[in-house]
Amino acid sequence: MTTETARTVIERIDVDELVKLALDLGNIDSPTGQEGPVGEYVYDWMAKNGFAPKKVGLFPNRFNVVGTLPGEGNGRSLCFNSHMDTTIAKEEWWTTRRAADPVFHSAWREGDVLIGNGVCNDKGPMATWLAAAKAIKESGVRLKGDLVLMAVVGEIGLEPVDEFQAPEYVAKEAGTRWAIQHGGVADYALVAEGTDFALVGVEAGKAFFKITVFGDDLPLYTPYIQRPTPIEKSPNAIVRMSRLLERLEEWAYEYEQRNRYAARWGTIVPKVNVGAIRGGVPYKITKTVQQCAIYVDVRTTPTQNPVDIRDELRGLLAQAGLAGEVELYVYRRAYEAQGAEPLADAITRAHAEVVGGTPKAPAPGFSSMWRDINVFNEMGIPSLTYGPGISVGGGNFGMRIADLVTGAKLYALTALSLCNRERR
Fold first, then answer.
1. Residue 307 lies in a domain
2. Is 251 helix (H, G, I), strand (E, B) or coil?
3. Residue 377: its pLDDT value, please?
4. Which residue has the higher pLDDT, 389 or 265?
5. Residue 424: pLDDT over 90
6. Could you tell me if 69 and 133 are in contact, meaning their C-beta atoms sit under 8 angstroms apart?
7. Which residue is catalytic, options 29, 35, 85, 146?
8. In this structure, which of 16, 104, 153, 350 has its CB flanked by the most CB atoms within 10 Å?
9. What is the C-alpha separation between 132 and 139, in angstroms, rounded?
10. 344 and 317 share one domain
11. Do 193 and 241 have their domain in common?
12. Taking residues 215-228, what's their average pLDDT?
């Protein structure tokens, strides 16, 4: 790649068009399970700009979009990947009190910043590689290898459990995994998400557990409850659960310290979160509850076995003196990129050209979450995560336009570098 070639492509990146594209995408509300309209927009955009898109979907109303900029042959291929779904549906007020707030469902500009949950996660980064691909195509520069453009559904998990079952409650199987298994393959994949331009090559897996605590075999009518009673001896399973929650929080801190995993392109600090609790029914609260369940998200490293974690959680129940059971209902393994050095080199060269220096080491939060890098690496496609902004996990809802423009330049130069290298 010559300096003149790079300049020819970079000059084709239209900032106003990039901003419009990010805002258009951000203003199509698409919580997981409702990605159809944004999928149609991306499909139409790719078709209009000559990327021959295909709808690759497990479900007709929520499909992945896969387009291609064909190479001339014998070059390494690269897939750009971002997800179209967003994190909060308007009715999810039991998890987010202001779930209907416009910041979760729309996008707007405030000075030099684009605001919106969807812009940060993950439509802003998606807009940057769409703009980069368009700039390469319009410049007339030919790549040797194919550039694959993949916009996916279901990166944000809706995991089936209890009565909440597929097809309404299914996510990750319908997204990147489905797209790869049905033709969306390349030699390498760059998962475009917010990393503050740090290079991430390992991300956490996750094991979801349902822990049920049992109360007394015979529920008591409220007037017959005796006090004082030790919490673990209460006839009410909800009350007993408070003892387990206290012990679980202590275990969670010890667990993340003990299982910290340092890798070449990131460090996993596997966190634990109690994400839901069920017990009783609100319209009939006149008796003690016989069972109460919590749903626990335990992040994992590439070396861990979820059965070992289940045994530890069973041990917590026993230590608390509680009767109950532990069920593993989701397991998604963690992976570390193998053979991703050519992609890392291409990104590093682009970073030096546009930003200066080399990509910094990622903050542990970036490498301790689940993103679709894990699916690519599981399926033997070396993958790294790299992009503008810092996503929304820590409460950020704004992305600087300057960072989006920088991202578009970086992705364009990365593609020019990698896709013009011989495959053999």
1. yes
2. helix
3. 98
4. 265
5. no
6. yes
7. 85
8. 153
9. 11
10. no
11. no
12. 94
Annotated catalytic residue, options 29, 122, 146, 155: 155
- What secondary structure, in 3-state letters, does 337-352 show? CCCCHHHHHHHHHHHH
The pLDDT of residue 394 is 67
Domain span including residue 209:
205-332
391 band by pLDDT with thresholds 50, 70 and 90: low
In the prediction, which pLDDT does 390 show? Answer: 80
Same domain, 27 and 114: yes
Q: Is residue 155 flagged as an active site residue?
A: yes
CA–CA distance, 89 with 34 (Å, rounded to integer): 9
393 pLDDT exceeds 80? Answer: no
- Of 308, 332, 356, the residue at which a domain comes to its end is 332
Q: Is 14 a catalytic residue?
A: no
Instruction: Based on the fold, state whether residues 84 and 112 are members of the same structural domain.
Output: yes
Which among 286, 306, 332 is the end of a domain? 332
**Tally of residues, the chain:** 424
- Residues 186, 318, single domain; the answer is no
The answer to whether residue 423 is domain-embedded is no
Burial letters 361-394, b for 16+ CB under 10 A, else e:
ebbbebbbbbbbbbbbbbeebbbbbbbbbbbbee
Q: pLDDT tens, 201-211?
A: 999 999 999 99
Domain harbouring 258, CATH code? 3.30.70.360
| 11 and 141 in a common domain | yes
Query: Which residues are paired to 299 by β-bridges?
Result: 206
Residue 314 has pLDDT above 90, yes or no: yes
On whether the CB atoms of residues 273 and 295 are closer than 8 A, the answer is no
Summarised one tens digit per residue, pLDDT across range 131-158 is 999 999 999 999 999 999 999 999 998 9
Of 185, 154, 151, the C-alpha closest to 81 is 151
Q: How many domains does the chain have?
A: 2
* 391 in a structural domain: yes
Contact 46, 25 (CB under 8 A): no
- Split at pLDDT 50, 70, 90, the class of 389 is confident
